[in-house]
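Worked example (supplementary).
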Amino acid sequence: MLTLAVLVPLAAALLLALAPLGAAAARWTATGSAVLSLLALVSVWAGGGEGFRAVTEVPWIPTLGIAWRVGVDGMSLALALMSALLFAASAAWPMQLEGARAYYAWMAFLTGVSIGLFVTLDLIVFYVFFDLSLVGMYFLIGRWGHGEAQHAALKFFVYTLAGSLLILIGIIVLALNMPELTFDMRAIIDSPPLAAAGALPGLVFLAFVIGFGIKTPVFPFHTWLPPAHVDAPGPASAILAGVLLKMGTYGLIRIPLQMMPETFARWALPLAILGVISILWGSIVAFAQENLKRRIAYTSVNHMGYTVLGIAVAGSALGSETARQLALTGAVVEMVAHGLITGALFLIAGAIWARAEDYHLPNFGGLAGTAPRLTGAATLAAFASLGLPGLAGFVAELHIFLGAFGVYPWLAAIGLLGILITAALFLRMLRQAFFGDLPYERRGFTDLTTAEAAILALLLALVVLIGIWPAWLLALIDAAAVIPAIGAGG
Amino acid sequence: MIWALAYLPVLAGLGIWAVGASRGRTALLGGLATVATLLLALIAGGRSGRFDWSDVLTLQAALPPLAQAVAVLVPAILLPITLFAASHEEARGLPRLVGLMLVFTGGMELVVIADDLVTLLIGWEIVGACSWVLIGHRWREQPPGLSANFAFVLTRAGDLGLFLAVLTTFTVTGGAEYDALGRLDDWPLALAAFGLLVAAVSKAGQVPFAPWLFRAMDGPTSVSALLHSATMVAAGVYILARLHPYISAAPGFGTAAMALGLATAVLGGVVAVRQVHAKKLLAGSTSAQMGLMIATVGAGYPGVAVLHLVVHAATKAALFCAAGTVHRVTGSFDLREARLGRALPVSAGLTAIAALSLAAVPPLSGGWSKEEMVKAAEHAGLFWTTAAILAGGLSAAYATRFAVTAFGPGDRDEASERRGESAALLCLSGAVLAMSVLWLPWAHDAVSAWIGAELPTGTRLGLIASLTAVALGVLAGLRAARAPSAPPGQEWLGLPALYEHGVIRPFHGLAGVAARLDDGVIDLIPRGVAALGRQASGQLARLDDDHIDGLAPGAARRASQGTSRVWRGAVGIAVQAASALAALAAGVGERLSDIIPGGSGRLAGMAGADLRRLQTGLSHHYYTLLMAGFALAVGLLIIGG
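After joint prediction of all chains, the assembly is encoded as:
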């Protein structure tokens, strides 16, 4: 089933690359493949189970312990489901494109590799998907972006590729230190190598943190993000923020946290501090941005900071077990929530670009009159992003802070300031774009079309659902099963 | 069922907004939803509810008598205000206004029924968000938007205190229910209690958070009437009263509450006495009155504070309706241009009742509850009593001045009454009058027994001093009303300017500097690494120039082969450079080096077609980095293997 979820979009990409389809047919092929993939994942979810489920294994290079291994636990299933949904939404998002067929081919390709990354249980396959996702995004930004799209795309590519190389080093060292060479994640999680203190585990950990930190991104490795977002087309931005950033934090949990828990615990505090710096820095810098997309982009740094704080707390081996579980639950919910919320925000930014070809906030104002639906969606998404209770972001942030306060109370208290600054910056954005006087040149600004409104409504309905009744998502994530038992050796 | 108290008005409000309707229909629908909420509040007493939010957190609701009194109060005040809004406010956006006031009420009811800190936090912030939408209701104008943002951010700053209380309570006890709060002691208790106090005073518009209440005056009058009586500011007082049994043991809590409350009561009084803007006068008064209530909680009489909250809600809502009428007739809130007594005698009479109640003149209800608060202060000591009496005198002065300047006999002798406005005023002032039965012993004994309020006993001397202060205040107010005063030069004693220069502008500056640093300095990391990588592998790059050149200009077919050769070359050189150690690990390294080109080769092949369409001038960066990284990889392999 999981293999199908990966192969269907990849097959669709192949079809789109070869068959001469029209723009509309291409759009529906890409969307359809994402929906099919989503359905496959839903069926796995419906099947229930504990730990890694729906596992399939096909040998590939047996001598090196590399195989096509797929399987999901609650965390990766939640992320894969969110990704598939966001891909369906982004592919269905109406666009005026040149070379639409190629665009949708890359979109479908990206769907396949992204879902593949979350469902694979083999480190080498993980690495391959990690890099392939860069390729897909590189072309989406570079070819269909605007402004200095090519430069932004290249910066994104080079920067995250440099990070991925560090990850590769780490993966190889991990595998070599297993009693028997294997890249099977389950095996490595079950008997984590490199448990001893020393320089090597620290270096490997550092390689992972920098590698995944670039992708996440955490301060100070985040500077590739704003240009990539600003110049990317709306749906590509939604994918970049909603799905690709999650690969960094997912990797951080799956590999360093689960596969080298002792080392992680030793370095948890610096990582948590990095998270808090990202929270504050991301929000402060976002506040100063006058470009709509740059502002949203920097809030991603802020939100990923919450996630990293949660992950660091989960792996700290300090405080109570409940606190660590809460922090990890919060971190995973933050990933899902941020995917939905920021995905929606970037689609909204795309809708604004399609109508005005401008992101400079002072050039806007008063859109609430001409575009009430757009205003409603943007307001809801902005409040969700600033963590208003009743919406998904709050669930995540509350859990993260509840957990973090039990382990690093001072860091949690400082991080709380982020909540205040995000409130200020989002309200400022709403006022600048939607309220006050309507500038003359925006007279013709039209509201969301039915298709756009329906897609946003779908994403935001989930945001509300998770906000009001998060129990089902928390049960799915099942953070208790993710956190490794630390203490035996350290 | 108890949850319906919160979600029924929310859903009804959203429905009214979505459907939209004429004035009459909006009033009717809004009224019906409000009445339904009121009935629910009446029958839900004593009930409780649980909702499993996650495996660790359960949302809990309960409605003890003290809470029920407030739960009934909120829709009871909303009802006349809905009537007022339907008659008074602009038709454009009216369904949104009425609908969102219902949502606001739902949020407030969630605060009221909350029986654990997480539920409280949810309701608390929803109330704040609703106030943002409502203050910014007239979004086409600039000031309401700015004020709404100011109000939300300032109150959210206070909310962080509530967050801290939740975090502390949960961390120490493993639960967030109110009872868990009672299990705290020592510093966690202090942290939770003071966190709650900060949250409460920010919502209740106390010093130093008071300026947001002034800015909130940019909202429609109906919103002010609701926000200053039964919701938002009331939430601050209510929650301190409700949680008093759990947190009063925290060291210094009572003193801090009294100090903040009475400081605001006196300062707010001074602010109100000097104001000529009708709504801002009332806003200063709201801060002052909430201050008295918070001080009463601090003195140990939460029940008394809630009783005054109820009386004050009807009083203040009535006065805001009166201020709205002034604005409709004169086109401004400037009290110096009002004096509508001849033109609107009925409104004048009804306003007088509410104003005298606010002035705490016996035998009106406000007089009774205020004297109870002064008695409570007497229990705390002479200093606090003096401050409370002074605050009482000030409220007599500004209330009198408001009534006389707004509705004293003046030159204007004709203006139209509006039935909705008058009816709302009649209901509210009638309620103020009716509650005056509280002066009678059987009435206040019955009420205080029902909500479980302990009534303080006072001295005769205290009563005389207090009533003298009221009398002097009334005289001063009458005198001040005669002479037209100039508006004060600084709003709220300069506090807003302090925020502007001390917080907002510096933060804008800081953010600007951070943004420049981000672009200029932090971005040097990747640029520096890239430059280093280029230099360090310059040798490598030159050796392999052939391969790279072969790649660049659109050789899709050769791409994968080319890359493989680059890889092998890089590996080879790196291995040579560390030949002695490499010998040990060469086998592994070679096997691995075969895998990676496989992957990247496929990648390059797929990318080839599109690569040609892109400018490739910078791609050598990528390749040099790739090689530098791989050299590093091999190095580590050697150590690791």
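Two points are worth noting when inspecting this output. The longest strand of chain A covers residues 53-61. Chain A has one domain: 2-482.
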